[in-house]
Amino acid sequence: MTQIHISIKKPNNQGGLDPVTGTMRFCPVRRHFDTAKNLVIAASFDADLSASGELTVDLLPTTSAFVWQVVELADSPQAYTRYVEVPNSQARVEYMDLVEVDAGTFVPKDMAGSQLLKVRRAATQSEAETLSAQYPDELVFFDETATTAKAAAALSTLESITAEAQTNAMLAKSAMLSARSSADSATATQSDLSSLASNASMAAASVANDSQTVADTANAVAAKGESAIATIDSTVRAVKDKAEAATTVLPSTGTTEGTTGGTGKDSAGETPAGTVSEEPAAKATVKGA
User: Fold this and answer.
1) For the whole model, what pTM was predicted?
2) How many CB atoms lie within 10 A of CB 86?
3) In the predicted model, what is the mean pLDDT of residues 274-284?
4) Which of 6, 193, 228, 270 is the most buried (most CB within 10 A)?
């Protein structure tokens, strides 16, 4: 049940409002079955306004099968009839907030002239998709279990995509760290190569210096060798000159008295005093050299 609060006033000559008393008549439009499978006939009941012009009444929530007819101030010249929907509410609802509908179609009056919503039902999602394609202006419902299963499958797919995205993010991070490490290694290698190149340049300079030193030493040795050779040649030349000079001053070989065969010796084989032999003279020349 839903509590409906009604308050009716009338104007007075002082610019204010006075309460109205009278009868309110309520009747369900069309016979219908309730949730307990009871047949509810279109029978009315009355309720009187209080001295303050107010009334609180309990009414069954309406469905697509029926609405409430409310006759204000029934059996009076001011009687007025409304057809309203009653919501299923635990809180009290004001009479003026009830949606007023057309008595024949139960369509809210504020929707008069608009297209009615048509609803179709399907057993499966596939059938619903087919009906939806055939009737694009109609709303198609299908089994809630199938909807739940499809939603669960979609959620599972999203979770899988999320997990894959997280994995790819981790791989990308790992690749970035690896790239940074490789860059650091390359920098270190470049530094080592630069150091090696510097050492090689220093070694090349040292080798060049050593080569120059060796060349200078060889040149010095060659110069000294040439000087020594020149000295030796000069000494040999001097010795030869002395030898030639000594040979020039030696007496010529002749036959002396008492010698035989021109050898400078006597018959006894002795060299007479005052006679110079050629052989000793040659030896003397060598010693003089």
Assistant:
1) 0.43
2) 23
3) 47
4) 6
The DSSP symbol for 95 reads: G
Q: Answer whether residue 289 is part of any domain.
A: no
Could you give the CA distance from residue 250 to residue 285 in angstroms, rounded to a whole number?
A: 10
For residue 136, being part of any structural domain is answered with: yes
For the stretch 242-253, pLDDT in tens is 777 777 665 555
Cβ(103)–Cβ(76) under 8 Å? no
Place of tokens 């060049």: 208
Do the domain assignments include residue 260?
A: no
At 118-137, the pLDDT tens digits run: 788 888 888 888 888 877 87
Q: How far apart are CA 260 and CA 270, in angstroms?
A: 11
Check: CB of residue 45 under 8 Å from CB of residue 132: no
What are the structure tokens assigned to 168, written together? 């790819």
d(CA 3, CA 96): 13
Boundary-marking domain end, from 60, 86, 111: 111
Residue 239 lies in a domain: no
Radius of gyration over every alpha carbon of the chain, rounded to an integer in angstroms: 72
With tokens 């020594």, the residue in question is: 228
